[in-house]
## 1
Amino acid sequence: MFLLYYDETASPETTNTTNETILKSWTLPANDYDAIIIESEVRGNISRDTDTAVSFTWRIREGGLTGTIRKEITTRITADNDTGVGTGQITVYPLKVVISGGQSANRQIVVTGQMSSANNSYDIMAYSLRVYGVKKLKLLVAE
């Protein structure tokens, strides 16, 4: 397994929109790998009690923002204000997918985020993006 790319910096927080937004991006060059592993840690946050449930969806896409979805996860975060003293809720999830290698041309790999509700108290982001190339082991057999 060969590490092709890594970015361990947090993306900017995307707030107050329900549009699917690119959080992390990298261009995978043409290659002769048998498989490509893509992984990211992503976060959804409601920063205050809002008595609201918000759905957060993250996707790994091959081919940019409108490209093929290779992995998708959706979760709901509820910030319940029963006692009036809570501080919202944060969730962090790992995303990982294995796709076929051997791309004949450059392909943009993106991690995207989307929220079901727009509010400045909700945000979505990605902490990292790592891409690995994998080649099959070839066994040498003595004759």
## 2
Amino acid sequence: MLVSVAVDKKRLEEALNHDESNNASENYFYIPLGSLFVRLLVHTRVTPNQLTIFWGCLMFFSSLCFWTGDRWINVLGGIGWAISYALDCADGSLARYTNLKSGRGDYIDGFNHRLTYPVLMFSLGYWSYRWGMDSIFGFGFDPAVYLFLGCIAGTCMVLIIDVGNIYNRIMPENQIVTNAGTTGMEGEYVKHKSFYKRFIPFSPFPFTNMLFLISFFALFGYLDVFIVFYAFIYAGGLFYRAHLLYKKIPGPDMSGRFR
């Protein structure tokens, strides 16, 4: 698998993902790092699907780092997730270069995200339950609330992905791009569209920017603040996206026909 192979440099450049993303972390970190991984992996016999399976496992086991109270293991978990997402950006380019793009790769990719996102958020909720605050501004609360927030955040992350797929199944003649991100979906409907699209890429709200911040919150011991913030952000984001797409689906008229 690790035997060095010849590389077609021209075809490699064509296969690399040079498209700009809507989010700063992707443009300046994940995509460049993913491209570096591809340049290394093309010298081996690693297949795109093997890479996809690997980063899925890395996401899963990086999430388990947050079950400990060790600050540096927590930071390592955040770094593991950042590296995993860079590898997620790399497997498509590797598939294009090796001509091994397949439906199986997309299937594994989708399975990875739907498994690891809830595991990540519940793990952060568990860390907060064990080692986080039990009062805010003098008001005490049961730390088990963090477990609930972790479940809410993880569930909403998966539904934010799948609500677009549900819409496309119902409206095949008017499908949307489900991976367009918040600027490509919600950004098309806000009042001040241009401001929104300039602000969001550098804000903490998009998923990729959120991943980039995990290690910093872990370093300073504020993962409890992190899970509270993102539980509300993703619950709000899910409600907004679901509402937007619901309004785009025709409802029945008085005669029972769809209009």
## 3
Amino acid sequence: MPTEAATCPTAVAPGAGRAGAGAAEGVCPSIGSDWTDWVRLLKPRVMSLAVFTAACGLVLAPERMPPLLALAAILAIAVGAGAAGALNQVIEAEVDARMARTAARPLPAGRIARDEALAFALLLACGSVTVLALAANLLAAGLLAVSILAYALVYTLWLKPRTPQNIVIGGAAGAFPPVIGWAAAAGEVGLLPLLLFLIILLWTPPHFWALAMRVRADYARAGIPMLPVTHGLEATRRQILAYAVLLAAAGPLPFLLGLAGPLYGISALALGLAFLALAVPVARNRGEEPTALQPEKRLFAFSILYLFLLFASLVTDALVGAR
């Protein structure tokens, strides 16, 4: 496999700025891509979180799907999430080329041609929605289609380059999976999946901003108006704390509304307080350099664990209650 450097005009050096990125506007032919590049195009880490929360929604639904259909539904949601990630990278190929964090991705590095990636993404998107319609129902398939379009068009194409609140509004796209999983099994949307949607919606800004603060120079170089770039670190830290408070309050709602048992209620309370306890040092931190942003680094790492443990406790609570 070729290196990630300048065999293709899209592979712009991280410090090249907008002038260097101009060359990225052409379509570069694939140069020695292998299957791992096509997997990277799907953003597998983001996909895994979508699959996990969708599977939780499916398990929590009051109706049970036949195992093979349930597996097909989860695979369709996974492929749909991957399609959204691929469309995101197609749209942002020039932006990714200007950022050190993303310059090695298959498109800016020139290992996959942009038109090939677009065809691949559209094929996956259409296929995943079709399979979900056949394996589950039209409601779930429609929600999957909306989530793909919301991530690729509303967030990536419209919000991200225009407003520092992009992740607040665009975070709704990432909050769909538990609703889709529930709808696939139940054929409708209940209150519990809507609460899970709300929790992910509130979780996304502090999770994302904790990372964005540490790579804000990349976003500034790429011209992306992320909150740490447009409003500074102090304002971002205040908003992280505010969202942490809202998240700590929203987490126990399924228990408080009688939709989950005490196991979940205790877990949600403890996890919310832990999230808040890690957000307070972020709000108090006055560091500017990436090496001084250790509280932000700890919050980002815990935020991933938070969501996994919260959903796992909800499923465990439901299974224990069923017995």
